[in-house]
Specification:
single chain; 2-enoyl-CoA Hydratase, Chain A, domain 1; 236 residues; 11 helices
Length: 236
Amino acid sequence: MSLVKLEDKGKWSLIVMRGPKLNALSREMRDELLSALRSAKPVTVLTGESAYCVGADVTSLSDIRKELEESFHPLLREIRSDRIVISVADKIVAGACLGMFLASDVRIASPGTRFVTGFQGIGLAPDTGVALFLRGYKGMKMAVLGGEFTAEEGEKMDLLEVSQDPMKEAERLAEEISRGPLMAYLAGKKMINVSLGLENFLRVELEEQSKLAYTEDFREGVSAFKEKRRLQFKGK
């Protein structure tokens, strides 16, 4: 069974992540997701089967710089490319998946969904655009120090909208957007991308995360995660 399902809904596409471990982003799953996004229609709904997704599979990470360059950053660029992406979240969104969710044009979550940065817990800084899209005082504080928020808190932070039936709302919006002036929508998105300075941001993110991959704290973070024990960071 494929880890990512792409469905043709007529005027729009539905992409469903359905991997193990709450859709942890293994390299195989990232490759399938990138392929699905590139094959999808200009209006796309992105969601997960058991949850939205919980970021990188820490146990499978080897060369962080290579992973960012070859899959995480291409995923983010594809979401910010010439398409309208509606992300639908349920249960939990964590790590790199938080970046994917926040990079989406429309973000809808079910009540009580948890959004977790997660990176600092293994000695890394946020990546996949999380620090770029977490705006406002609370968002910036979380991007630096880590933490989590609920869907309801995220709505107050103007990061998303909460819906009792997020998939129904996403499908309604996808139909509505696909009947609208798509070229105008995409032109507006290009303008936003320029104002975000996405490429300069990703360049800095790549350099800083690559440095952190060689720190004692990162090695400790991964070891503690695998061994399910208390962290003992040294600030080195």
